[in-house]
């Protein structure tokens, strides 16, 4: 079993905070007076009792072993992960406020740590070749289930094709009056057909007529791409294997990340959440130091809960990732981690705006439904352009329009402030609407600045 | 981004131009058939096929647009960058928006936004540069809180002004900070000063005048005088107010002239400013008027037959100021007051307002204004060579004491006279210092402002030790931060006493909040004994002990946080 590694810095700890509010709350709790019964053990765990605001006490344990992402447990009712208590405890530890490898853990902490170790062993056993034999009990039944689902999706796609041709026969102008209800109902039909990817796209269509000037063009584009996806599914047996896998994943069939594990030092480029009250989707972009690949980790949180995976932007993570199937697919699953995230001077190498646009065009060849590709622009200057902004090449006369990202306008202003009219390096998503900035680096030396 | 144009081709659904496809899609294939396509049920699918190909083609062919005009580069900030831990702290303070942690009770966690002013003051004193990425949040914070603006803008530096020019929400930053003088033209830029003064918006002109006055008092006055006759009355009032800064005898001729202004408010302000110049002709005129109203009358003293002496005044003189009085005085004299009978044109010209506010007698009203505007040096000569302490101790006949003392208080504040302020304040331990005496708490707070910081802290500490905290809030606000050790001790002791008395801590939330911001972090150790929840005593309010422990915990945590803050900024 690996031992507790080097003590982290406060930077590393704070970077784990799911949002600014937890960061601030954790910072307040990272002081000696807020804790009692604090300790850590050689097994790589830190624990303590935090004094809650109403006098109640929460038992907090954090697993900080090398080779595993930190795991948290806290008795508080907060849905956030890590909660402010876990952050506070880690800050206390990072600041040297916890005796190194002191006494044995109290019983409540010991039980959780032991449980965690057991699950680890099981997970490792399952991943080994000998464990794989114990897969689905009945491959024949699984095949039948998959066939039934494919049949339902085919029926759904056929129905959707009918709706789209009906719409085109009557004219898009009518869609403005039809309103949201029609699309909501169609989306529900696609959910019934077990095609969540189609359902999500249909729901998007419903919001386009109210999206401002130019909506007919956008509606035609999205209808046409949905039609393309329907056709791709209905004729998937005639597509190349990679494109067929992309179609399956776009339609919404789950696929496991069965690519070979790739070990690298991954620079954590950006992390941001999107979604609605039902589901929060967290996207984390990584850049491989050796492979040079930009890959995407997705993590979900249901009903207002924060997604479980949190990685600190600007640090590197020594880890293995496995790709999901599909051509042009960037999504990966995180496998083994070999060390906690550590500070780095590394920056991704960037391209010019012209190259960026060309890269997006190339990526469409493998996945025509792609909205954007991850890219780093180098030597670009944020330039105000009427009510919006551009990223202009410092050495050329070309520019990409800026699309405000998860941090909305505040992110754009941070970017403008960081630049001060000088060239900066910006990582973001480059698509047909423009470039969405996510993280930036100053011209000179300096750490990554998240724009979310 | 820009699209590459569709290459011309033979008409067919697959090669119809994008614009044609959009038109057909809008109207519907039942009404319009795309070029080169059979009308009928297949037309809709054909349009979708063509649109799909065209959409992907258009997206793949996107090229960057022409760059718009680039902004000038922001000037370099020569100040050293913040240490990493301090930069992180700043981000944390800025992220803690008020109302983010909703709910009435404050809990045990510190109020981070309240620490921002102190953080900014320390960072400014150390001369650090703001991290560029923090500028938008800093500007937003300064936008919401005008009291933060001068320090926030100074810390934010020139890049923040560069940024503010791009965002109308931050336009306030360009108006400059009164007295800070970051934006208005600098010294030696007379042409720009002149142009801004002649063409600027009102707010810009006020800022310009304030900045110039702080730097070059005479220049500012001359600038104002050059356009005085053509300014609107409201503007004249605001401009005149800026002369308060660095007021000097050289301003007298201009102010005398303003006494004849068309606007009554302007006249009153000019008179007020002149009366703050004890050597001015106006002050002399007011002194001449005031001395006719106030005189020493030996017959009024401790007459054995119980002559008309204000009984309360006499006893006060006995109890507190016995030492002030000359032991040689045969019978203690008293002050007799004969308030003016009329407010003549000369008085009105010198700024005396003739009509009293509702509920006040007009003679007392006039008297107050005369005494307030007369130089305090007038009184020792008029009242038998006595010093301020002796004069304040004299009994006053016919119940005029509170009017007279209140007017002297205003005069002491206006003329920044420490000796008079000290005399009027009296010892902090005096029984009526805490109650409604002749001098109100608000006046006392103003009087404290004329004393040295150390003297102020000692007086307030003595006051709290005698009278407790319930009336201390305003006085504490006058003391220098961090509080001097005796004052800090007095506040902590008084809070401890208040807890033992069994009341709830929110009765003291104002003082608690002040203590969090002003107590010296080195005093945090004194709180250790107060952090635990005490056993509930019989006469305590239910649960009060727990709330007090929580309030003290927050106080201790905040002090530790402040200590960490200053440490991170490399102080101490």
What does it look like?
The complex is a heterodimer of chains A (452) and B (572). Chain A has a six-stranded antiparallel beta sheet with strand order 12-11-10-13-14-15. A five-stranded mixed β-barrel of chain A has the order 5-6-7-9-8. Chain A has a four-stranded antiparallel beta sheet with strand order 1-2-3-4, with helices on both faces. Helix content of chain A is 38%, strand content 25%. Chain A is α+β, with helices and mostly antiparallel strands and 452 residues long. Chain A folds into four domains: 10-105, no CATH class; 145-251; 260-343, OB fold (Dihydrolipoamide Acetyltransferase, E2P); 353-450, OB fold (Dihydrolipoamide Acetyltransferase, E2P) (Beta Barrel). Chain A has helices at residues 10-14, 20-29, 84-94, 107-127, 129-132, 139-170, 173-192, 196-207, 215-234, 241-251, 353-366, 408-419, and strands spanning 35-41, 45-51, 57-63, 71-74, 262-275, 279-288, 294-302, 316-323, 331-337, 372-385, 388-393, 398-401, 424-431, 435-441, 449-450. With 572 residues, chain B is mostly helical. Among the domains of chain B are: 84-91 and 112-174, no CATH class; 190-277; 452-571. Chain B has 26 helices and three strands. Chain B has a two-stranded antiparallel sheet. Chain B starts with 17 loop residues before the first helix and ends with a helix. The interface between A and B is large, with 74 and 75 residues. Strand 12 (398-401) of chain A pairs antiparallel with strand 1 (65-66) of chain B.
Question: Mind sketching the topology for me?
Answer:
The complex is a heterodimer of chains A (452) and B (572).
Chain A lengths: L9 H5 L5 H10 L5 E7 L3 E7 L5 E7 L7 E4 L9 H11 L12 H21 L1 H4 L6 H32 L2 H20 L3 H12 L7 H20 L6 H11 L10 E14 L3 E10 L5 E9 L13 E8 L7 E7 L15 H14 L5 E14 L2 E6 L4 E4 L6 H12 L4 E8 L3 E7 L7 E2 L2
Parallel strand pairs in A: 7-9
Antiparallel strand pairs in A: 1-2, 2-3, 3-4, 5-6, 5-8, 6-7, 8-9, 10-11, 10-13, 11-12, 13-14, 14-15
Helix pairs in contact in A: 2-3, 6-7, 6-9, 7-8, 8-9, 9-10
Chain B lengths: L17 H10 L14 H19 L4 E2 L17 H12 L20 H11 L8 H10 L4 H16 L25 H10 L2 H14 L1 H11 L5 H9 L10 H7 L5 H12 L5 H11 L2 E4 L13 H10 L13 E4 L7 H5 L12 H12 L4 H5 L5 H6 L7 H14 L3 H8 L15 H8 L4 H15 L5 H4 L8 H16 L8 H10 L25 H25 L4
Antiparallel strand pairs in B: 2-3
Helix pairs in contact in B: 1-2, 4-6, 5-6, 7-8, 8-9, 10-12, 11-12, 13-16, 16-19, 19-20, 19-21, 22-24, 25-26
């Amino acid at each position: 079993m690996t031992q507790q590694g080097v003590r982290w810095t406060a930077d590393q700890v704070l970077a784990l905070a799911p949002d600014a509010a937890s960061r601030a709350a954790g910072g307040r709790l990272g002081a000696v007076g807020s804790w009692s019964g604090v300790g850590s053990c050689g097994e790589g765990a830190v624990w303590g009792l935090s004094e809650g605001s109403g006098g109640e006490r929460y038992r907090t344990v954090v697993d900080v072993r090398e080779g595993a992402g930190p795991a948290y447990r806290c008795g508080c009712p907060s849905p956030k992960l890590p909660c402010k208590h876990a952050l506070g405890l880690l800050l206390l530890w990072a600041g040297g406020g916890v005796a190194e490898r002191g006494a044995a853990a109290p019983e409540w902490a010991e039980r959780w740590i032991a449980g965690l170790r057991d699950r680890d062993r099981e997970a490792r056993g399952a991943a080994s070749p000998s464990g794989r034999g114990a897969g689905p009990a009945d491959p024949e039944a699984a095949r039948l289930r998959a066939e039934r689902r494919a049949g339902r999706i085919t029926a759904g796609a056929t129905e959707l094709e009918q709706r789209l041709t009906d719409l085109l026969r009557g004219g898009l102008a009518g869609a403005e009056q039809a309103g949201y209800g029609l699309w909501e109902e169609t989306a529900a039909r696609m959910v019934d057909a077990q095609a969540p990817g189609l359902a999500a796209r249909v729901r998007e269509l419903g919001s386009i007529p109210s999206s401002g000037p130019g909506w007919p063009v956008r509606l035609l584009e999205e209808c046409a791409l949905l039609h393309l996806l329907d056709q791709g599914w209905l004729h998937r047996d005639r597509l190349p294997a990679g494109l067929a896998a992309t179609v399956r994943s776009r339609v919404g069939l789950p696929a496991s990340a069965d690519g070979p594990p790739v070990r690298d030092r991954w620079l954590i480029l950006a992390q941001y959440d999107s979604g609605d009250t039902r589901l929060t989707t967290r996207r984390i972009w990584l850049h491989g130091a050796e492979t040079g690949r930009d890959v995407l980790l997705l993590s979900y949180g249901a009903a207002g809960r924060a997604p479980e995976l949190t990685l600190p932007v600007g640090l590197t993570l020594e880890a293995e990732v496995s790709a999901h199937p599909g051509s042009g697919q960037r999504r990966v699953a995180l496998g083994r981690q070999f060390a906690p995230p550590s500070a780095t001077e590394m920056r991704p190498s960037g391209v010019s705006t012209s190259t960026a646009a060309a890269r997006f065009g190339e990526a469409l060849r493998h996945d025509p439904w792609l909205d954007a590709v991850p890219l780093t622009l180098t030597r670009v200057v944020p330039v105000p352009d009427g009510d919006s902004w551009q990223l202009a090449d410092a050495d050329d006369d070309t520019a990409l329009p800026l699309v405000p990202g998860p941090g909305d306008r505040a992110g754009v202003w941070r970017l403008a402030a960081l630049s001060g009219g000088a060239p900066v390096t910006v990582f973001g998503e480059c698509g047909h609407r423009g470039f969405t900035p996510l993280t930036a680096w100053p011209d000179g030396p300096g750490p990554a600045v998240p724009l979310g | 981004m820009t699209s590459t144009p569709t290459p011309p081709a033979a008409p067919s659904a697959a090669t119809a131009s994008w614009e044609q496809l959009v038109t057909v899609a809008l109207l519907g294939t039942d009404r319009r058939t795309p070029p080169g396509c059979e009308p009928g049920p297949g037309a809709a699918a054909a349009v979708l096929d063509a649109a799909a190909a065209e959409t992907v083609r258009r997206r793949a062919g996107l090229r960057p647009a022409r760059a718009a005009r680039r902004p000038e580069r922001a000037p370099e900030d020569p100040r050293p960058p913040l240490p990493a831990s301090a930069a992180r702290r700043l981000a944390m303070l800025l992220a803690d928006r008020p109302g983010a942690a909703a709910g009435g009770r404050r809990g045990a966690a510190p109020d981070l936004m309240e620490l921002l002013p102190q953080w900014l003051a320390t960072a400014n004193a150390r001369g650090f540069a703001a991290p560029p990425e923090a500028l938008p949040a800093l500007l937003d914070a300064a936008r919401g809180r005008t009291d933060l603006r001068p320090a926030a803008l100074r810390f934010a530096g020139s890049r923040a002004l560069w940024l503010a020019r791009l965002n109308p929400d931050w336009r306030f930053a360009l108006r400059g900070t009164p007295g800070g003088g970051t934006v208005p033209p600098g010294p030696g830029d007379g042409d720009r000063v002149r142009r801004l003064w002649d063409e600027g918006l009102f707010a810009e002109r006020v800022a310009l005048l304030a900045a110039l006055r702080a730097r070059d008092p005479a220049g500012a006055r001359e600038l104002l005088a050059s356009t005085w006759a053509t300014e609107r009355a409201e503007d004249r009032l605001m401009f005149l107010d800026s002369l308060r800064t660095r007021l000097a005898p050289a301003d007298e001729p201009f102010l005398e002239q303003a006494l004849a202004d068309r606007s009554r408010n302007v006249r009153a302000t000019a008179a007020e400013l002149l009366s703050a110049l004890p050597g001015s002709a106006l002050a002399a005129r007011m002194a001449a008027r005031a001395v006719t109203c106030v005189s020493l009358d030996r017959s009024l003293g401790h007459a054995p037959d119980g002559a008309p002496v204000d009984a309360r005044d006499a006893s006060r003189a006995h109890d507190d100021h016995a030492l002030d009085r000359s032991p040689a005085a045969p019978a203690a004299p008293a002050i007799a007051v004969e308030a003016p009978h009329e407010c003549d044109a000369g008085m009105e010209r010198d700024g005396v307002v003739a009509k009293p506010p509702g509920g006040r007698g007009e003679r007392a009203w006039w008297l107050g204004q005369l005494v307030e505007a007369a130089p305090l040096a007038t009184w020792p000569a008029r009242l038998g060579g006595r010093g301020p302490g002796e004069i304040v101790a004299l009994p006053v006949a016919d119940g005029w004491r509170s009017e007279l003392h209140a007017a002297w208080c205003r005069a002491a504040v206006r003329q920044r006279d420490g000796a008079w302020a000290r005399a009027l304040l009296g010892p902090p331990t005096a029984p009526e210092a805490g109650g409604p005496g002749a001098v109100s708490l608000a006046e006392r707070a103003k009087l404290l402002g004329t004393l040295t910081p150390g003297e102020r802290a000692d007086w307030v500490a003595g006051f709290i030790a005698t009278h407790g905290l319930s009336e201390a809030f305003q006085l504490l606000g006058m003391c220098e931060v961090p509080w001097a050790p005796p004052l800090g001790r007095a506040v902590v002791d008084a809070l401890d006493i208040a807890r033992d008395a069994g009341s709830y801590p929110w009765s003291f939330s104002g003082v608690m909040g002040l203590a969090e911001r002003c107590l010296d972090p080195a005093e945090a150790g004194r709180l250790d004994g107060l952090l635990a929840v005490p056993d509930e005593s019989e006469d305590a309010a239910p649960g009060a002990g727990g709330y007090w422990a929580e309030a003290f915990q927050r106080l201790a945590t905040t002090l530790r946080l402040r200590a960490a803050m200053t440490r991170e900024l490399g102080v101490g």
